Amino acid sequence: MGLLSILKKFKQQQGRELRILLLGLDNAGKTTILKKLASEDVTHITPTQGFNIKSVMADEIKLNVWDIGGQRKIRPYWKNYFDNTDVL
Protein backbone atom coordinates (compact mmCIF):
# COMPACT_ATOMS: atom_id res chain seq x y z
CA MET A 1 0.00 0.00 0.00
CA GLY A 2 1.46 3.34 -1.04
CA LEU A 3 1.32 6.70 0.70
CA LEU A 4 -1.54 7.95 -1.49
CA SER A 5 -3.63 4.88 -0.66
CA ILE A 6 -3.01 5.41 3.05
CA LEU A 7 -3.90 9.11 2.81
CA LYS A 8 -7.16 8.28 1.00
CA LYS A 9 -8.02 5.72 3.68
CA PHE A 10 -7.38 8.15 6.53
CA LYS A 11 -8.96 11.13 4.76
CA GLN A 12 -12.35 9.89 5.94
CA GLN A 13 -11.19 10.11 9.57
CA GLN A 14 -10.84 13.80 10.38
CA GLY A 15 -8.32 14.73 13.02
CA ARG A 16 -6.14 11.76 12.17
CA GLU A 17 -2.37 11.93 12.52
CA LEU A 18 0.12 9.78 10.64
CA ARG A 19 3.68 9.15 11.68
CA ILE A 20 5.87 8.80 8.59
CA LEU A 21 9.43 7.51 8.88
CA LEU A 22 11.90 8.43 6.11
CA LEU A 23 14.77 5.94 6.03
CA GLY A 24 17.45 5.47 3.40
CA LEU A 25 21.16 5.60 2.79
CA ASP A 26 23.04 8.87 3.12
CA ASN A 27 22.53 11.31 0.22
CA ALA A 28 19.38 9.47 -0.91
CA GLY A 29 17.16 12.60 -0.77
CA LYS A 30 15.18 12.06 2.45
CA THR A 31 15.67 15.61 3.70
CA THR A 32 14.82 16.98 0.25
CA ILE A 33 11.51 15.07 0.32
CA LEU A 34 10.76 16.41 3.80
CA LYS A 35 11.53 20.00 2.81
CA LYS A 36 9.43 19.69 -0.37
CA LEU A 37 6.48 18.39 1.69
CA ALA A 38 6.87 21.41 3.99
CA SER A 39 7.18 23.81 1.01
CA GLU A 40 10.66 24.86 2.13
CA ASP A 41 13.71 25.89 0.10
CA VAL A 42 15.76 22.91 -1.08
CA THR A 43 18.74 24.74 -2.59
CA HIS A 44 20.99 24.31 0.46
CA ILE A 45 20.63 20.98 2.23
CA THR A 46 23.20 19.58 4.64
CA PRO A 47 23.50 15.96 5.77
CA THR A 48 21.15 15.06 8.62
CA GLN A 49 22.94 14.49 11.91
CA GLY A 50 20.56 12.35 13.94
CA PHE A 51 17.03 13.21 12.82
CA ASN A 52 14.62 15.99 11.79
CA ILE A 53 10.90 16.09 12.56
CA LYS A 54 8.34 18.24 10.76
CA SER A 55 4.56 18.29 10.94
CA VAL A 56 2.75 18.98 7.67
CA MET A 57 -0.99 19.22 7.00
CA ALA A 58 -2.29 17.36 3.94
CA ASP A 59 -6.04 17.16 3.29
CA GLU A 60 -6.91 17.58 6.99
CA ILE A 61 -4.43 14.88 7.97
CA LYS A 62 -1.47 15.83 10.13
CA LEU A 63 1.68 14.17 8.81
CA ASN A 64 4.41 13.87 11.42
CA VAL A 65 7.43 13.16 9.24
CA TRP A 66 10.62 11.80 10.80
CA ASP A 67 13.72 12.18 8.63
CA ILE A 68 16.41 9.86 10.02
CA GLY A 69 20.05 10.28 9.01
CA GLY A 70 21.44 7.62 6.69
CA GLN A 71 25.10 7.57 7.68
CA ARG A 72 26.59 4.15 8.46
CA LYS A 73 27.08 5.02 12.16
CA ILE A 74 23.37 5.91 12.55
CA ARG A 75 21.85 2.87 10.75
CA PRO A 76 22.05 0.51 13.77
CA TYR A 77 19.67 2.90 15.58
CA TRP A 78 16.98 2.91 12.85
CA LYS A 79 15.09 0.08 14.56
CA ASN A 80 14.47 2.36 17.55
CA TYR A 81 12.19 4.58 15.43
CA PHE A 82 9.79 1.85 14.17
CA ASP A 83 7.38 1.88 17.12
CA ASN A 84 4.13 3.75 16.42
CA THR A 85 5.14 4.37 12.78
CA ASP A 86 2.25 4.28 10.28
CA VAL A 87 4.23 4.69 7.05
CA LEU A 88 7.80 3.69 6.27
From TrEMBL:
Keywords: GTP-binding, Lipoprotein, Magnesium, Metal-binding, Myristate, Nucleotide-binding
Keyword ATP-binding attached: no
Transmembrane segments annotated in the record for this chain: none
Molecular function (Gene Ontology), one example: GTP binding
Binding site residues for GTP: G24, L25, D26, N27, A28, G29, K30, T31, G70
Pfam family, one: Arf
Binding site for Mg(2+): T31, T48
Assigned protein family: Belongs to the small GTPase superfamily. Arf family.
The protein, known as: ADP-ribosylation factor-like protein 3
Organism of provenance: Acrobeloides nanus
